[in-house]
Write a structure and sequence with these properties.
The chain is built from 2 helices and 13 strands; from the N terminus they run ββαβββββββββββα. The protein is mainly β. The strands form 3 sheets. Strands 1-2-3-10-5-8 form a 6-stranded antiparallel beta sheet. A 4-stranded antiparallel beta sheet has the order 4-11-12-13.
């Protein structure tokens, strides 16, 4: 079994979100563990959120399952109708097609680290962002308001 040394992997930052929606992810960094191991059917990323950072905008996927495993620190899981603090060892799962917008926010004074795992169905997935004027489909990001015109 090939061991991956995460300390040797590139650390990625930033966001592909349409402006200004990426600003809250400025303190997010991740390393692509699954890609480094040659995985092609699902992704696995080691994610670090600085204090005040968000994992993403609140979203849900039509065809992709997601799971997060908190490894260090704590983050608040924000969903459609609740907020839950996740601590090391806590796991949260988000089944494909369940319209429950979610993301993690680091509201603490210390960084938090979690493993984000998800299936990869880019060719058919629709990602919905209930709080903002943004949608992601196989052609890329677009503003929902542009489609309404």
């Amino acid at each position: 079994m090939p061991k991956i040394d995460a300390t040797t992997l590139p650390v990625r930052t930033g966001s592909n979100y349409l402006p200004p929606h990426g600003a809250v992810m400025a303190g997010r960094a991740w390393q692509a563990l699954g890609a480094a191991g040659g995985l092609s059917q699902f992704g696995a990323n080691l994610v670090t959120l600085a204090p005040g950072a968000w994992s993403s905008q609140r979203h849900w996927h039509s065809h992709e399952d997601e799971m997060v495993v908190m490894l260090a620190g704590e983050a608040v899981l924000v969903e459609d109708d609740s907020e839950t603090t996740l601590c090391p060892g806590d796991v949260a799962c988000f089944p494909a097609g369940a319209p429950n917008g979610h993301h993690l926010q680091n509201r603490s004074t210390q960084p938090c680290v979690f493993l984000a795992i998800g299936t990869d169905h880019e060719a058919i997935d629709q990602c919905h962002y209930p709080d903002i004027d943004m949608h992601l489909d196989p052609t890329g990001f677009r503003r929902k308001s542009d489609a309404a015109r």
